[in-house]
Amino acid sequence: MLQKVIDILLGVPPGMALLIIAALVFGEAALFFGFVLPGETAVVYGGVLAAAGKVPVALVLAVVLVAAVVGDSVGFEIGRRLGPRLVRAPVLRNHPVRLEEAQAYLRRRGGRAVVMGRFTAFLRAVMPSLAGASRMEYRRFLVFNVIGGVIWGGACVLLGYFAAHSVSTISHALGVTSGVIVVVIAGGLLWAWHRRTRDG
Question: Distance from first CA to last CA of the chain, Å, rounded?
Fold first, then answer.
């Protein structure tokens, strides 16, 4: 099925394809599209598009990063304006347990949760709004937002680019890649925390 979708999308003019990718990545957090279509699907497709010679891979990376950062910034602003009412929004109120877990995760990890939330579809859709509702300073959110966007976007685009010959490989590796990246980030943060505690 995914192969058929990619075959169809490869026939779309490159400019339109990039616009579709940007819209899906932007809408994931800004409009909660992530509940229906995880943005990483579109991002991996961008890598496939670049591998087919339709667009430069650097352009795909730039489009994905801008769309991810701007989309999450809009989601942050929505959360900031709605505040506690956010959890009662129609699209979110059917996930009370997962929302509570996400909020607890944000309280424990702060900005680091914004980075690591990039690698789970549900958290990617709700974390920016939850960060805004928690009154996190936007400049602080933006730093972590950009870091997460670069790591996640780069990993997914390059996955599509280098594994374009095998959609089954992409489908399998997508989940594995996200998991590995989360583990690497968590390990790095733990090491940094341990070192700071030891030196302090």
Answer: 54
| Alpha-carbon span 138 to 133, nearest angstrom | 11
CB 132 within 8 A of CB 162: no
Q: Which residue has the tokens 């490869």?
A: 10
Q: What is the pTM of this model?
A: 0.72
- Residue 116, class by beta-carbon neighbours within 10 Å (0-12 exposed, 13-18 middle, 19+ buried)? buried
Task: Report the alpha-carbon distance of residue 23 to residue 55 in Å, rounded.
Answer: 17
Q: What is the pLDDT of residues 38-67, one digit of tens each?
A: 677 788 888 888 888 888 999 999 999 999
What is the b/e burial string over 8-39, where b = at least 16 CB atoms within 10 angstroms of the residue's CB?
A: ebeeeebeebbeebbbbbbbbbbbbbbbeebb
d(CA 30, CA 137): 18
Q: Which residue has the tokens 């957090």?
A: 29
Boundaries of every domain in the chain: 2-199
| Phi, psi torsion values for 22, nearest 5 degrees | -60, -40
